[in-house]
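Quick one, tokens below:
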């Protein structure tokens, strides 16, 4: 089932998400989030963006990490970022919850992460490049942080009227 996307202005996007327990029905939620992500043709989708205040996100790097013939979709439960590289890069980011706004955001190029997988097993990985960026963007959602929070005050002022329009449309 394709889930509705929560838009900027909704208080849920500013709340910190809660950990998922092994008994939670996260498999169906992740499947619905994956369908929603594919429908939106994006890279990542976090629980708060579909009005679920749980520490879950899905990332689809099919078009990034391979030739596109084999799906590369992963579910991350209760993710943590353990370490960041010193090297940081700018990349133009957007967000389903803030449609029509794309801005350059600086983030570490490489991160070490821990999360639970679809079997609720603990995994640790080192991510780099676009996959690391997507992970950080979605992880921020779980903390109540939006990519626009990482912009300079000047850039924020420049997009203020667009943000107000999005917030009005979400009511």
């Amino acid at each position: 089932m394709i889930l509705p996307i929560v838009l900027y202005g909704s208080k849920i996007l500013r709340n910190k998400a809660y950990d998922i327990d092994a008994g939670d029905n996260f498999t169906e939620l992740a499947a619905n989030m994956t369908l929603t992500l594919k429908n939106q043709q994006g890279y990542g989708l976090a629980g708060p963006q579909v009005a679920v205040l749980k520490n879950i996100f899905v990332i689809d790097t099919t078009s990034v990490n391979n030739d596109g013939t084999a799906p590369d979709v992963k579910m991350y439960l209760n993710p943590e970022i353990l370490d960041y590289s010193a090297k940081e890069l700018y990349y133009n980011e957007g967000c389903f919850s803030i449609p029509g706004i794309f801005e350059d955001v600086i983030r570490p190029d490489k991160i070490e992460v821990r999360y639970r997988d679809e079997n609720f097993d603990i995994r640790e990985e080192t991510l780099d490049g676009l996959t690391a960026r997507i992970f950080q963007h979605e992880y921020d959602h779980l903390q109540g942080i939006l990519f626009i929070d990482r912009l300079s005050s000047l850039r924020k002022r420049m997009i203020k009227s667009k943000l107000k329009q999005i917030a009005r449309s979400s009511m």
